Amino acid sequence: MRDSGFRGNRFRRALKIFFLGIVFTASTGLITYAAVYKVPQALDSSPTKIIVIGKTTSDLAFWVSLRDGVDVAAKEYGVEYEYWGPDSESDIDTQIALVYKAIEAKPDAIILAATDYTRLSIPAQAIIDADIPLITMDSNVYGSDGQIGRCFVATDNVAAGVKAGEAMTDLLPAGMKVAVISHQIGTTSSRDRDEGVRLGLGTDIDVLPTVDAAGSEETAFDLALKILKDPEIGGIVCLNEYSTIGAARALVDSGLVGKIILVGFDSSPALNTYMEEDCLDATVIQRPFNMGYVAMVNAIAVLDGRKVESFYDTGSILVTKDTMYFEENEKLLFPFT
Amino acid sequence: MAKAKAKVEVEAAAKAGTGARASTRTRTKAKVHTGHLRNSILFTSLFIIVSILLVLFPVTYSIAASILRTNSITYTNQMLQQVDNSINYYIDGMISVSDYIVENKNVVDYIAKAKPATTAAVKEELKTVAGTRPDFVNLIIFREDGSFVSNRDQMGINPNWDYMESGWYKDALTAEGEPVFSSSRVENVVAGEYDWVISMSRALYTDGRLSGVLLVDLNYQQIADICSSLSTDDFGYIFIVGADGSLVYHPQQRLVYSGIKTERFDLVTRSEGVRSVISNGYIYTSSLSPTSGWVTVSVFDTNKLVSISSDIVILFITIGLFFSIITFIISYVASKRLTDPILQLKASMKQFERGDFDAKANITVNNEVAELGDCFNVMTEQIKNLVEQELLIEEQKRISELQALQAQIRPHFLYNTLESIIWMSEIGETEKVIEMTSSLSKLFRATTSNASELVTLKTEIDYVTNYMKIQKMRYQDKLTYRIDVDESILQAKVIKLIIQPMVENAIYHGIKQLKGHGLIVVSAYSEEQKLFITIRDNGVGFDKGLLDGKADLAPKDESGIGINNVRDRIKLFFGSEYGISIKSTDPGEEIPDEHGIPGMRTTVTLTLPLIFE
Q: The whole model's pTM is what?
């Protein structure tokens, strides 16, 4: 009995020493870990670098606002970024070249707004193959399994198109035809909006085949002038900022302001003025600031190892002259710096 | 000699089974005990430091957290106060500017459409006022008839908008001459410009009749800069809500507007003085400015304190671990200093336990353990003396016992011999009586001589010879004897009275029962520093059982000293490797012919060391 008691005590003592050993090993490990790993990590000041490849470097209000969003997010999270892009949205080759250049620069992540759904597919795959996290925004890229990047941040363009189509349906005089001017027919944003507009217009309204402004305000202007020659045309839907401006100019030039219904996309000081002048009847505005901001934040989240939603809808709002100075719309139409 | 023997005794005892088991148990016990002392010290000191840390930590933590909290809230509130003051100063400035304009003679004349006042003069006045403050964007006086004067040259009114429908215009009319402040808004009254401004509007009266509205637009960026320069802090921020509930300023205004970030406007209180509302760890402190109707709100995020607090926890754990390790090391060293002499003492005790009575504890430190060591040394010394004394007494006892046994020979033998003499005298064998008596006399002389235990082999042989002579006379032809000893070893030392008992044994147990003629041969020879003495006889031989079972060979008859006595004495004197061996063959078995003497049935060999003094 006495002996077994001894053994019990001894066992407990051994157990105590064992646990003490574990505690000390763990603590020594912790301190070593902190000293060897955490401290240099904290001292390592090389910041995260992200390359953002937009559709254009021009001063289109949409892209200016989007870049603002990217900038605000980058500053908020202390991330370095570079914004690259071709001069024009139609310069797909340059954007492809920029993607390869970006891969060579070995950034921590790449954010891409594709100028072409199919042609940017192979360069996008190259980004993924180079083990660089890819975030797509505004316009997506074809991927074999639907989604190529970690996350796609964009306006739900079909829904936005539906809003434009419905606004046109409300305003269009009965029996008149509608024309659609696209901005860059190869992009998802263009395709989806077009699809949405046709959904919004319904089956009763006659819609002409979509024409492509191919990234140029002048082309849109010429196309609109051509369209306006058709007396049966009652309304034009334009799918982005410069195509809308081109069509608005055509309306002013043709003296058809107030006679033809114009529904556009996006906003700019010029478009705001057209709207005040009753030339532009309604516009669907996106949240480019949000797009840039969320794309950047999600890229940072991916780099931090957090999960992000595969699609982030930044939403859209239909604005008319009556609602343009509503507080919530004012902020989107007149972005302040 | 006595000492050496004592050692042998004790060692033998230690090697014995029971002794070994006992010592194993003591060792196990001792091991546990030494470990225990050091561990106790280590655990006690660790327990103390950990307890202190455990008590100290929550106290320090809560104090630190509350100080941090109080300081941060105080700081945020000071910021709130500062922003409030700056905003009020700014607004008061605008009011005094508007007061100046309203009371200006030219302006009064202009709105009253009195004669001397011209648009140009009013424009100059407005330009002068605008020149005093760089943040003025527009200063416009709208007359009731729709005409206006601005501080800016060539400024057109946006034709697409009716300014009379704007909020600032309507609010000014409602306020009846009091200045009204808008929140941040886009100024759309100027053609082709869309500036973010904060507007102050004020209805103008001439003789109590509404005659115009003054609009003062301030660059929004200016006010945002004031706020942002004051409201950047780790724990919170400040935002301003306008009289209509819309945002005047927010550090993340664009994110709030774009819906990415949401602001808890429901926590803003719109009442006189400073009020705080707490929700989800956020403290919203609102301060209403009576002049502008703006509410300055400070938001303090106590959740951020938690992350600071977790830093404190990590710091504390690190410090705690550091001190625990230091304590462990110190107490380890201290306990080692304490336990080492104890272990030293233990080692000495073990040595003592193993039977080394010369074990001494040499403890170098100067403390209680050293005293203990001294006590131990005294004790071992005493025990050693006691044991030696005890062994000495034991030895003396044995010797006296043996001497007593040796003495036993005399009465027995004397009795028998005297009976023989009587018998021989009766039949008149005078010659033999003389011879026998002479031998008996010699025998007695040898035994009574008080010489030491060791005698020469010659003395022993003489003794046996005398004994045999007597026995020969008693047994006549039935007994023959021969003594065969090498001359060279006659001076070797042997224990006295070891051969005679063997011979006696041979006569009484071997020859006596033999039907025929008995022969006893005593021989001695040396081999490899050993002395062998053999006593052979052709008697009936040993009982097999006695030989095989190694049973006690104690004498069962009057012959007295048995083989055991002789063996004990030999072993006691010379060690266990010496002693007696007996070889015996059964009757009827073929008897080997040894040393040319046939028929020897029993051989008793005494093995002793070959010693010459």
A: 0.58
Q: Which domain holds residue A171?
A: 157-286
List pLDDT tens digits, range A35-51: 665 555 555 557 789 99
Q: Give dist(CA A42, CA B309) in Å, integer.
A: 19
H or E element in which residue B276 lies: strand B274-279
Locate the chain B residue with the closest alpha carbon to A297. B260
Q: B452-609 maps to which CATH number?
A: 3.30.565.10
In 3D, which of A70, A23, A58 has the Cα closest to residue A216?
A58
- The yes-or-no verdict on residue B19 having pLDDT over 50 is no
pLDDT (mean) for B229-247: 75
For residue B125, give Cα distances in angstroms to A206, B154, B178, B203, B443: 60, 16, 21, 18, 167
| Whether B220 contacts chain A with CB within 8 A | yes
pLDDT at B149: 86
Q: Is residue A192 part of a domain?
A: yes
Q: Do B258 and A290 make contact, defined as CB atoms within 8 angstroms?
A: yes
- Reported as a single tens digit per residue, the pLDDT across A127-144 is 989 999 999 998 888 876
How many domains does one find in chain A?
Answer: 3
Q: What is the pLDDT of residues B420-462, one digit of tens each?
A: 889 888 988 888 888 888 888 888 777 766 667 778 899 889 8
Choose among A60, A57, A73, A50: nearest CA to A291.
A73
Q: Tell whether B32 is within 8 A of chain A (Cβ).
A: yes
The residues pairing with A261 across neighbouring beta strands, listed in sequence order, are A235
Residue A313: inside a domain: no
- Rounded to 5 degrees, what are φ and ψ at B526? -115, 150
Chain A interface includes B188 (CB < 8 A): yes
Edge-to-edge strand order for the sheet containing A233-238? A211-212, A177-182, A233-238, A261-265, A282-286, A316-320
Question: Taking 60 as the threshold, does the pLDDT of residue B549 lie above it?
Answer: no
Predicted confidence band of residue B325 (pLDDT cuts 50, 70, 90): confident
| Separation between Cα atoms, residue B578 and residue B29, nearest integer Å | 40
* Closest chain B residue to the Cα of A8, Cα to Cα: B32
Determine, for residues A334 and B255 on separate chains, whether the beta-carbon distance falls below 8 Å. Answer: no
Q: What is the pLDDT of residue A247?
A: 93
Nearest-neighbour CA in chain A from B26: distance (Å): 12
- Averaged pLDDT for residues B471-485: 85
CA distance A66 to B37: 73
Is the distance from CB of A65 to CB of A288 less than 8 angstroms?
A: yes
The interface predicted TM-score (ipTM) is 0.71
Verify that A209 and A300 share a domain, yes or no.
no
Q: Which residues contact B168 (CB under 8 A, 6 or more apart)?
A: B180, B182, B185, B199, B201, B215
Q: Say whether pLDDT at A21 is over 50.
A: yes
- Torsion, CA A71, CA A75, CA A77, CA A82, rounded to 10: 50
A80-84 and A109-112 beta bridge pairing: unpaired
